[in-house]
Design a protein that fits this description.
Radius of gyration: 19 Å
CATH class: Alpha Beta
Helix content: 25-40%
Distance between the termini: 58 Å
CATH architecture: 3-Layer(aba) Sandwich
Largest sheet: 6 strands, mixed
Number of helices: 9
Strand order of the largest sheet: 6-7-8-3-9-10
Shape: globular
CATH topology: Rossmann fold
CATH superfamily: P-loop containing nucleotide triphosphate hydrolases
Structural class: alpha/beta
């Protein structure tokens, strides 16, 4: 399936935050929204989710306007993983993930054996089945993030939207979450994620929109968009892109250049 953003204008109230933005995201792709704070990543993200209204332009899925879908149908197309989530009650992991099955239930329905079986298999596939009877509020940050991913996947969406999926995670858990994102894309899921880290885009080998300070939007594959010049212009600090190789894999990563100043 194909998600298209066509000459999109997004705003908070009357203030235009994103203007004349166009991009296409297809099933099986990872699409990263990259840029500094305040540039419009979250505004664009929330507009796609229908949390904010479209000011101008259109968003379509397979050529159908997103506002033509009911809330339940849209939940079957778009899954959402927030940065963090703390429920008011100490639900088990199984209960939290089963909440994602709501999109497939009747208005007054409740989850049945089929839903619990689906979630059990999903937890096994994500290798977190050992957490299913744990209290969600007692989990580590990395474990919670995987549970939130599982809850979104329980909707059986076509696209998964992830808001800073590695936020507040230690390095090891960041690596695990990025690897899971890559695995999900290989299985045909379209992933749209916001990030502050160019390295995450390199690790995902993703399609990216670099949202620059002068309101330009550079859209394309990471290898074509992220250069030392564009990153330096975007973030206002000198950045070098280094390349290395481990066994049969080559990879790129960013290194800020610190300049000594006389005192």
């Amino acid at each position: 399936m194909k998600l298209e953003l066509n000459h999109l204008q997004c705003s908070y109230g009357e203030k235009i935050i994103v203007n004349d933005f166009s991009a296409t995201i297809e099933s099986g792709e990872i699409f990263c929204l990259l840029g500094p704070n305040g540039i419009g990543k979250t505004t664009l993200f929330k507009t796609i989710l229908r949390f904010l209204p479209i000011k101008k332009g259109t968003i379509t899925i397979n050529d159908q306007d997103i506002y033509s879908y009911s809330k339940k149908d849209y939940a079957r197309l778009i899954g959402y993983v927030p940065q963090s989530h703390t429920p008011p009650f100490a639900y088990t992991v199984m209960d939290v993930v089963v909440m994602g099955r709501t999109a497939h239930m009747d208005a007054f329905g409740s989850p049945g054996k089929k839903d619990y079986d689906f979630v059990s298999k999903l937890l096994e596939r994500l290798e977190i089945a050992d957490l299913k009877n744990r209290k969600y509020t007692e989990l580590s940050g990395g474990e919670r993030q995987m549970v939130l991913i599982a809850r979104a996947l329980a909707q059986e969406p076509v696209f998964l939207m992830m808001d800073e999926p590695t936020s507040n995670l230690d390095f090891g858990n960041q690596v695990k979450v990025i690897q899971n994102i890559k695995d999900l894309a290989k299985q045909g899921l379209g992933v749209i994620m916001t990030t502050h880290s160019p390295d995450h885009v390199f690790q995902c080998n993703a399609k990216v929109v670099l949202m620059m300070q002068d309101k330009r939007y550079l859209v394309g594959h990471v290898s074509d968009i992220l250069s030392e010049t564009t990153l330096t212009d975007t973030y206002g600090v000198h950045i070098a892109i280094l390349e290395d190789q481990y066994q049969d894999q080559s990879f790129s990563f960013c290194q800020p250049i610190f300049e000594s100043k006389p005192y």
